[in-house]
From TrEMBL:
Protein name: Corrinoid adenosyltransferase
Record's catalysed reaction(s): 2 cob(II)yrinate a,c diamide + reduced [electron-transfer flavoprotein] + 2 ATP = 2 adenosylcob(III)yrinate a,c-diamide + 2 triphosphate + oxidized [electron-transfer flavoprotein] + 3 H(+); 2 cob(II)alamin + reduced [electron-transfer flavoprotein] + 2 ATP = 2 adenosylcob(III)alamin + 2 triphosphate + oxidized [electron-transfer flavoprotein] + 3 H(+)
GO terms of molecular function: corrinoid adenosyltransferase activity
Residue stretches making up the Cobalamin adenosyltransferase-like domain: 4-158
EC number(s) given by UniProt: 2.5.1.17
Matches recorded under Pfam families: Cob_adeno_trans
InterPro entries: CblAdoTrfase-like, CblAdoTrfase-like_sf, PduO-typ
Domain of life: Bacteria
Keyword terms, alphabetized: ATP-binding, Cobalamin biosynthesis, Nucleotide-binding, Transferase
Length: 183
């Protein structure tokens, strides 16, 4: 099978239900999902923690599933079980136990492992903004909101694994409430 089809040579591409311009908002959203998935793939390549690599790979599969819902011009099927939002929350809670307490905003970066996850997080925020503007994927917004939080958390964890402290924003105040100890 040849990889090229030539069907997009005139600036159009296909959604399920019609041909649209390549700058169509749904195609733009699909492109951002692809960019996010690629950044996650790069982040996976930098990680040494097997559990983290497995979770990030599952997220890549979830992104393909979520993207498939964007491929319809009319009433997309709700094929994705959004219990994956709860799964992200559970994973985040587990990773956060290994991270130092967050007091101030931190700068993206630290180790290469962490920086790659921060890049994925910032692209995820762009996906979220784009889907909000698009309006066709409102039910997916909690997933992308949680995914960006997850990527932030695992970026901090990656710094812990690498032995690199988070760099706090120098001019920032203590904005996060300390965890209260259970009595």
């Amino acid at each position: 099978m040849k990889r090229y089809t030539r069907t997009g040579d005139t600036g159009e591409t296909s959604l399920i239900g019609s041909r649209v311009d390549k700058h169509h908002p749904q195609i733009e959203a699909m492109g951002l999902l692809d960019e996010l998935n690629s950044h996650i793939g790069l982040a996976i390549a930098h990680q040494t923690d097997t559990s983290l690599r497995e979770q990030l790979t599952k997220i890549q599969h979830d992104l393909f599933d979520l993207g498939s819902e964007l491929m319809y011009t009319d009433s997309p099927p709700k094929t994705v079980d959004l219990s994956i939002v709860t799964e992200l929350e559970r994973w985040m809670d587990d990773w956060e136990k290994s991270c130092p307490e967050l007091v101030r905003f931190i700068l993206p970066g630290g180790s290469v492992e962490s920086a790659s996850l921060h890049m994925a997080r910032s692209v995820c925020r762009r996906v979220e903004r784009d889907l909000t503007a698009l309006g066709v994927a409102d039910r997916q917004l909690p997933y992308f909101n949680r995914l960006s939080d997850y990527l932030f958390t695992v970026a901090r964890y990656a710094n812990v694994v690498a032995g690199v402290p988070d760099q706090e924003y120098a001019r920032g105040a203590a904005v996060f409430q300390p965890k209260r100890k259970k009595e």
